[in-house]
Write a structure and sequence with these properties.
- The chain is mainly α and 63 residues long.
- It has two helices and no strands.
- The protein is elongated.
């Protein structure tokens, strides 16, 4: 899908250089994926402390 966006050239060029991307499109796609991933992670961390731990869970079994 083609979308035209007005993005600050300095901002996109800095991201392009920091990420060592070849194209602006790669830069934007990666930035969006990272944004989505971080938002999903923050939703998961909000759940910490809301569930009771399983008293029968033995973490040593998985080793």
């Amino acid at each position: 899908m083609t979308t035209n966006l007005a993005i600050d050239d300095d901002l996109i060029n800095e991201a392009l250089n920091l990420g060592h991307f070849k194209t602006r499109e790669d830069t934007v796609i990666t930035a969006l994926r990272e944004f989505i991933s971080r938002r999903k992670q923050s939703e998961i961390t909000d759940l910490f402390g809301q569930f009771d731990p399983d008293p029968d869970y033995d973490y040593k079994v998985g080793r």
